[in-house]
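call fold(seq) -> tokens
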Amino acid sequence: MATQTRAERAGRGDESRSAAGLSRAQLLAAYRTIYTSRRLDDKEIQLKRQNRIFFQISGAGHEAVLTAAGMAMRAGHDWFYPYYRDRALCLALGVTPAEMLYEAVGAAADPASGGRQMPSHWGHKALNIVSSSSPTGTQFLQAVGSAEASVRAGKLGLKDGFAGDEVVYVSAGDGTTSEGEFWESVNSACNLKAPVVYLIEDNGYAISVPVEVNTAGGSVSKLLSGFPGLFIQQVDGCDFIASYEAMAKAVAYARERKGPALVHAKVIRPYSHSLSDDEVMYRPPEEREADAKRDPVTEYPKWLVAHGHATEAELAAIRDEADALILAATDDALAQPQPAPETATRFVYSPDVDPCSERFDTEGDPHFTGEPTTMVDLLNACMRDEMRRDERIVIFGEDVADVSRDQYLGRVKGKGGVFKVTWGLQKEFGSERVYNSPLAEANIVGRAIGLALRGFRPVVEIQFFDYIWPAFMQIRDELATMRWRSNNAFSAPVVVRTTYGGYIRGAIYHSQTGASLFTHCPGLRVACPATALDANGLLRTAIRGDDPVIFLEHKHLYRQTYNKAANPGPNFMIPFGKARTVREGTDVTIVTYGATVQRAFTAANQCAERGVSAEVIDLRTLSPWDREAVYASVKKTNRVIVAYEDSLSWGYGAEIAARIADDCFAWLDAPVKRVASTDTFVGYAPSLEDEILPQVEDFVAAIEGIVTF
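ret:
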């Protein structure tokens, strides 16, 4: 629908149509929300200038369309992924002025984050407002994942947590539509016919960059017109009535499961981007004056009076009531205590489910069946058992399904992943639980977060670790932080499986490791099995846990004969943070993981023939890691080598070495030694790869060197 001005609609002379079917009480309630939202912005600006709060970013000029969105949707029924301008939406949904000011002062009582995030990072568990973050555009894929959850739940007959007709709202400014994840999300939303409503609040600027610089042609809705099934409307977002009509149509379209909808609302930004910005430096006076003539805070009450929906006295009473409410809320917020310092470490991980506990330790009681088989087969067996146990588990990624076209199931052998780890799962569990994603890593992780927030248990695959980096924003800034930043209101227990590592002649882009980039992220668990049995037990723990897990599967180890095992049964679990002593020794400890475990073991056996006794410890999980086992071994042998496949400098082993130096210095008879790859990339030619990656002879040299120190 083309944008219409207020004057054009008034010329129709159809007051009942102009009021969009809203009652007088609803029209006045809308004014209360619009006015309160602006006054809260003004109050926060005042508090910031008084140094009583520490950050402010406003929703000024966006109030009309956001109030309309809140009134068109159902709080606590629908799901919401707002962005920082969405104050009026949150007010309309039921967030109180006091709760918003709790955010501003960083109060412990703040329902969005308990003082952990800046103001306007909305979140409210009871209202289904999912915790917002600062990165622009990351919310889009999560919203599609949450909407996808509704679709898949309906097809799978899942009722718990699903109403059947809920809609997911997601919003952003015009500048954010430049992010690639926005386009990935629209693509998937259309493919899935997901019930998601996009609201693009186009105020013409992304900080200081005007829309025509961000968007070809200056209109994102025009660029989107070719997406099949996407219901698009353009509207004057400063006009509450027009905005409500547009939002109601969009919500109805999604609620009827026709597909996604997008409302492109032209709004204004009467204040600077934030208090750290000064728009006078890049916007001329005439442009700002033109915006002022469209301001919903002044124009909407004029419309109410002109059409007989309110008197000046009634509007004045609403303003007085709102001002009094904000004044009382301010006094309340300023008196609130900040979070106690000792609470800072709470909710990095689940407070209720500890994957390191005895609950996850059935390693001593395996129930083996069948002949020894490979890591690939035991990973597949674990996922198969877990999917039979829990109907909420879904598996997706690039090429993970047997086929994408269901009519071919049973007619062809099936793909099941590049390495066949997921082969046959789609055949048994169907295409609603095992399915292919677009070739887009952020898409995989972002949607998985949205699914997890709705109660699904996604186990997703990134085909190669070398290509995980497009998903790193979703992993580091969203997946890892969700529980902590929401003060335990939301969590996303996603398992991200990915193949990694060298020793396969894979060159630069099929040999990467880099585990330290993920172990460095609080909130993530990182597992790295070296044997088929460990892979089975650790993956089961990862799936049954309640934290996000990066599960590293070494390609070189997938089909080795030396690490085979029989199937240990559907309840076999290995707790995180429990190392395995591969070989007992008395002269030196080798701490390692992954593909270097076997090389360390072989080197230790060779050195034993020369009278040197080396103990080899396989960490199995990298975060957490088993300090007790490592320290006990170091205190016994008094010498230690830390070995890892990544580059020597800044690698994972540097942290282990530093901890040993800090905590076990009194027991050391030699400096901590490291064995690792060269500080280069991995070459393709065998002569290069062998020189770059740690080999058995490197371990032998390190062992001989440290015992003679």
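The longest helix spans residues 24-49.
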